[in-house]
Amino acid sequence: MQIPGRFAWKVEGAELSTASCDVVQPGFVKSWTSENAEIKAALQVKTRRHFLCSIPCDLSACTTMQAIRETIYSFKARWFDTHAQLNRQYNVRYFVDTHNVEIFDTKTSRLFLKKSDCPATLSAKDFFIGSKVLIYGRHFELQDYLDPFTAEKLGRQQQKSVLVIKADMVRNIGAVLDFLSHQQFAFSAVKMLQVGRPHAEKLFELLRGTSEFDTRVNQLAKAPVVAMELVQENCLDKLKQVVNSLSSRFNAQTGEIESAASVLEAQQLRSFYFETQHAPTAIFENCTCCVVLPHVFKEGLVGEVVSAIQRDGSVHIAAMELFILDRTTAAEFLEVYEGVVPHFNESVDHFTTGPCLAMELVGQHTNDVVAQFRASAGPWDVEMAKELKPQTIRAKFGHDRVRNAVHCTDLAEDGVLESQYFFDILSRRQVRS
């Protein structure tokens, strides 16, 4: 049986091809069968495999086949087209072993991106439901699993849960973030918010009439809390261990740090903290804006940076939220720095490579908090910071003029404006989406 021309076939989600020079090229056929018993048996295997054949032109004569497992994560995804103002649907496939990615346009039924190198800023742990992955300039939001293999594999590996920090524990938020980073948790969402008493009573409705009700409601409603959605294998059980460890370490009172007890409760807490409009904690007065950059998250140092900010007695954190910015949003935020800051385009690009943690910092004992914190952050040129201001944040955690750990407001008159951009405009947009 001679192979006419160039083709490939796809069975049970696996691409099959011969290992010859150019007889077989990528393409798609829904099914394929063979009279050869060995090949027919191989095609019935329901796991993801590549079959390599040493005889390119005569499959019926082929007696030597090698099956090689390749792990592929497949997702239903969407990309928001800002020009058309609509979401476009795609299938995204990530090849774990080779760090490749392939994207299929479901509307046109065409390959949008052939199997290509995945950006170095991404890794396997970035691919989970709800994640936004930046692939060649576009943010694809992963919405659902595309096949049972991915659902089974990642359903165990990338479980989500919610951790809530309340009352006096909020002052230790930097240490908490650092502890979670060292435990290899991925941050899906982080938000500081003020829960009103009616919302708190609704959350603890099942406790109404018990001695715990007023205590829990007051604890939640009296001061800002920090809620986090985290991702890790067996996340529910591991967060219970985190609660015990942190409670013991900081001598926390009952309820000051707690996590979801079940998958259902995790979903309910996500809806309550991240999808419900709560009162903002930002005050938009005598403030500056600080943004922890994506490379800090990748390096697991976000907690150390936040702790360094908290040790600065001239400011306190009034608002905090995790954002994933597309290029349009990042360019809009940094617009005032265009033509002023070198490597402007590279800086905009870096803002889009992963999560950013935005904070509103309010002056404690100063009326010029922008200048005060700018001095604590250090020069934007990291080499200069290391030489002249070695104790500053950028000197300790930065690498170069683009990956310089934090963005901070440059001009006093922009402090309120930059804070409003994140905690009024973008924060409201995230709740609506």
Automatic annotation (TrEMBL):
SUPFAM superfamilies associated with the record: Nucleoside diphosphate kinase, NDK
A GO CC term attached to the entry: axonemal microtubule
Intracellular or extracellular location(s): Cell projection, Cilium; Cytoplasm, Cytoskeleton
SMART domains in alphabetical order: DM10, NDK
Main location: other
Keyword Cytoplasm: yes
Domain DM10: 69-158
CDD domains: NDPk7B
Domain of life: Eukaryota
Keyword line: Cell projection, Cytoplasm, Cytoskeleton
Membership in a protein family: Belongs to the NDK family.
Protein name: DM10 domain-containing protein
Species for this entry: Phytophthora kernoviae
Lineage, broadest ranks: Eukaryota, Sar, Stramenopiles, Oomycota, Peronosporomycetes
